Task: inverse folding
């Protein structure tokens, strides 16, 4: 069974997560299909991509597939992690990627939405980043993804509380470009995508790549990187990561 649905019309590629049984958790399989779809749309010279859920359920995506997280004592979010590969592919895609969000967005899926170029949601959308619930250390690229978009106090509220930011606040703090009514969301998103198809693809691709390079240019020296890596190791070798992932799998609240 495919884990995503895709469509291509008017030079716009659509990728819809279709794994509702697991609340569109971003498994390696689902991500592999998504990366293949992005490659196909790149070959077709897509002028815009829409990333959405195939369903109309309460959850856009439950984030990283927790069943696939290493159970302990291993970096849970290494550079090679499929979700990290997807974040880089979205940021490198040579046309705008628009997240169309209905329902709640959790963990790494929130990072994915923040990696998209534009985000539109309806009043049911909500956004949570959840390493504090799983007892795991997020990674440097992920922190920078949030810090380059949101005020630090909002970044800290999200990472410390792991609580969802509701639709109206998400618009106020800048997680989304716009919140529109549920019945207008699709036409708003595809209307913006169609606008991109009438503009210079070369100019847009250069703007997107230049903004990516400049926004990611956070100079840190090797000692600082080693220090940050050491902080992360202390957590993923620690007791909380064991407890956080076990609690989820045993369907009980974690005891930190
Ligand atoms: C695997 C799942 C998942 C899931 N993985 O439905 O940001 S970080 O650092 O934490 C990063 C590592 C990350 O992204 O971690 C994942 C963070 N995600 C979350 O914390 C969300 C966990 N899920 C939930 O809180 C609930 O499932 C929500 C609120 C999303 C939906 O609740 P709902 O009551 O609608 P269930 O909880 O009953 O889930 C339905 C099925 O989906 C599985 C879950 O185990 C269940 O499977 P079974 O029916 O086989 O029991 N599922 C949900 N999320 N991230 N599997």
Result:
């Amino acid at each position: 069974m495919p884990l995503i649905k895709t469509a291509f019309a008017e030079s716009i590629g659509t990728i819809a997560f279709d794994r509702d049984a697991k609340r569109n958790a971003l498994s390696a399989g689902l991500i592999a299909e998504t990366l293949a779809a992005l490659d196909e749309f790149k070959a077709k010279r897509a002028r815009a991509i829409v990333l959405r859920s195939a369903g109309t359920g309460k959850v856009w995506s439950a984030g990283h597939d927790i069943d696939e997280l290493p159970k302990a004592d291993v970096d849970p979010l290494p550079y090679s992690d499929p979700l990290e590969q997807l974040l880089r592919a979205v940021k490198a895609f040579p046309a705008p990627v628009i997240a169309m969000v209905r329902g709640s967005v959790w963990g790494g899926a929130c990072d994915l939405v923040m990696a998209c170029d534009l985000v539109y949601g309806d009043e049911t959308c909500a956004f949570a980043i959840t390493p504090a619930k799983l007892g795991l250390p997020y990674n440097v690229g992920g922190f920078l993804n949030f810090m380059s978009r949101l005020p630090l106090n909002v970044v800290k509220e999200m990472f410390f509380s792991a609580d969802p930011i509701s639709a109206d606040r998400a618009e106020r703090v800048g997680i989304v470009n716009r919140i529109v009514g549920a019945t207008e969301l699709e036409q708003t998103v595809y209307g913006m995508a169609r606008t991109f198809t009438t503009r210079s693809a070369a100019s847009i691709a250069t703007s997107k790549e230049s903004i990516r390079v400049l926004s990611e240019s956070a100079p840190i020296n090797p000692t600082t990187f080693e220090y940050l890596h050491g902080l992360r190791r202390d957590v993923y070798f620690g007791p909380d990561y064991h407890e956080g992932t076990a609690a989820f799998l045993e369907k009980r609240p974690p005891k930190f």
Remarks:
- The mean pLDDT is 96.
- The longest strand covers residues 4-9.
- The pocket of LCV is lined by residues 22-23, 25, 58-59, 62-67, 69, 106-108, 129-131, 133-134, 136, 138 (CB under 6 Å).
- The beta strands are 4-9, 12-17, 48-53, 59-61, 97-101, 104-106, 118-121, 126-128, 165-166, 178-179.
